[in-house]
Amino acid sequence: MMKQDQLWADGPRFYYDAALFPPTTDSFALGYFARPPRGGAVCDLGCGTGLLGTLLLSREPSLRLFNVEQNADALALAERTFTENGWAASFRLGDLRDTAVLPAAGSMDFCVCNPPYFCAHSGKSAKGEARQSARAETLCTLADVCAAAARVLRWGGGFAVVYRPERLVDLMCELRAHGMEPKRLRFVIPRAEAAPSLVLVEARRGGRSALVIEPPLAVGSAEWDKVYFK
Fold first, then answer.
1. DSSP string covering 171-186, please?
2. CB 70 within 8 A of CB 134
3. For the chain, where are the E strands, in sequence order?
């Protein structure tokens, strides 16, 4: 069932369907962490219903957003969100593994993605095909996502991703294997002294080795209020 919400009172509206890709802490955390350049061309790989793009444009309206999504129903909700907020954006329906679906090679300044976290057929299954594909690598893998980002990014372009801490080594290895050097890393912790529940990483295409580990982002902290635009 389609639902509507706002980022803040009288703020930008966004549409979603809980049966597809419901709003999650992951997207809000990544939207806060990512630092695309002002006026930059940004590709959201697997945009879902467009929440991440909504967060980015709410913080920096000058961005030029290119959305790629293989679920037609989700993409329709993303288009409705952007249209009703008066934002111009590009939308492409299809598989990010298909280069014809992606923006032109080297044309993007920045990429963002909230990829599937788990290997296919591992752990608890999510309800519904859309949510299952968002959770596990049933339709695309981390390597597929990194390959797509590396293809569309210009030299020096940035790629911001949210992932699970237990697969951090996999993420770092795939980024380097596709010519993107991790430059910033930040853990999200559910409370003080708890183990991280998420990891945020920004890499640069063709960047030199130098990783900055930022202080953890704690759920419920004063800074966390900025994540949710409070």
1. HHHHHHHTTEEEEEEE
2. no
3. 2-6, 13-17, 41-45, 64-69, 89-93, 108-113, 153-163, 180-189, 198-205, 212-213, 217-218
Q: Which residues does residue 181 pair with via DSSP β-bridges, in sequence order?
A: 204
CB-based burial, 152-187: b 16+ in 10 Å, e otherwise: bbbeebbbbbbbeeeebeebbebbeebbbbbbbbbb
Q: Is the pLDDT of residue 118 over 80?
A: no
Question: What is the reported pTM?
Answer: 0.92
Residue-wise pLDDT for 130-150, tens only, equals: 444 445 566 799 999 999 999
Residues 41 and 110: their CA atoms lie apart, in Å, by: 6
For residue 160, give both structure tokens: 């911001």
Report whether 199 contacts 185 (CB < 8 A): yes
Spatial contact of 92 and 68, defined as CB atoms under 8 Å apart: yes
Backbone dihedral region for residue 123 (phi beyond 0: left; psi -120 to 50: alpha; all else: beta):
left
For the chain, the maximum distance between any two Cα atoms, rounded to a whole number of angstroms, is 46
Domain 2-227, CATH homologous superfamily name and number: Vaccinia Virus protein VP39 (3.40.50.150)
C-alpha radius of gyration, the chain, whole number:
16
